[in-house]
Design goal:
By secondary structure, this protein is mostly helical. The protein is built from 11 helices and no strands.
Length: 298
């Protein structure tokens, strides 16, 4: 039995080296300090950190993956994770490792395919699959962030209505925000609670509000935060601002619904042309064509 080709050996080594990193990216849990900090923020109680639970091997692997990834990519992942609400199952170190592992596995499989039958099409497909595998975690995180922005935009009018009622009943703006955050269940309620926590630990109100707009990236929420900051700076009644913003957000939500309804006929045209009309032509014209063919074939 002859020796294996060099590309096959290199591909096998790449897959063998990528599997441990893939296992760490899929199964590694957040660090003990991160878990303890999150629990402290939720409970409001300072707990001692169990530093003995940290794995030095895992830390070295995380530093290695960060060293192999450009800083711009890590910063972009941080922005996408912030817009997606920083899912607990998708921490940034795991995403960085997943990008490298997926790219290595896709590159190894592409190398195997190219070594079996090299051709321009095979090489092009191998490169495209490797690039897509490298950016796949970012695409998934971006999609998660877009869904979260849409959910915030849908929840914002109702949340502003609740805050308007609470402020007109005599509560302050932060108390109304706390009530809306406690009554809500979506991402907007979680962001309001986090903003109040930032203010409680000493962050200035203006910076906490602007950080809320930057984290979510929702245009409607950013416009509302800008109006609140200006009202706070110029002494405008917050009840009037809330009432005006609630009306504007309801109008925008209605306009978005009408816009999507108007897009439906345009989106239906392509399935109609590609799927329904050919079938209809076959059913209607098929017997006639068969009759014409049988007549002229005699």
């Amino acid at each position: 039995m002859g020796a294996l080709p060099l590309p096959v050996v290199l591909a096998a080594l790449a897959v063998a080296g990528a599997l441990p990193v893939l296992g760490w990216a899929a199964l590694a849990r957040p660090e003990a300090g991160t878990v303890a900090s999150r629990e402290n923020l939720l409970r409001g109680v300072a707990l001692p950190l169990e530093t003995g639970e940290r794995s030095t091997g895992r830390d070295r692997l995380a530093r290695l993956t960060r060293g192999l990834t450009p800083r711009g990519t890590v910063a972009r992942l941080n922005r996408l994770a912030s817009a997606a609400g920083r899912p607990a199952a998708w921490p940034v170190p795991r995403l960085v490792a997943a990008k490298l592992v997926l790219a290595m596995i896709a590159g190894a499989l592409g190398l195997l395919a190219v070594s079996g039958g090299p051709s321009p099409l095979t090489i092009f497909l191998a490169v495209v699959v490797t690039v897509v595998a490298y950016f796949l975690p970012e695409l998934l995180l971006y999609s998660r962030g877009q869904e979260r922005k849409e959910a915030i935009a849908l929840e914002l009018p109702d949340t502003l209505d609740q805050m308007t009622i609470a402020v007109e009943a005599g509560l302050g703006f932060e108390s109304a925000m706390a009530r809306a955050g406690a009554n809500g269940k979506g991402p907007l309620a979680a962001e309001l609670v986090r903003t109040l926590q930032d203010i409680a630990v000493g962050q200035p109100r203006r910076e906490a509000y602007l950080a809320l707009a930057d984290r979510t990236g929702a245009p409607d929420l950013r416009r509302f935060i800008r109006a609140v900051v200006q009202a706070d700076a110029y002494g405008v009644s917050i009840a009037d601002v809330l009432r005006t913003q609630a009306q504007e957000m309801r109008l925008k939500r209605r306009q978005r619904a009408e816009e999507k309804a108007m897009q439906i006929p345009v989106k239906v045209i392509f399935p109609l042309i590609l799927c329904i009309l050919p079938t209809l032509f076959i059913v209607l014209l098929g017997p006639a064509v068969m009759g014409i063919v049988s007549t002229f074939s005699k």
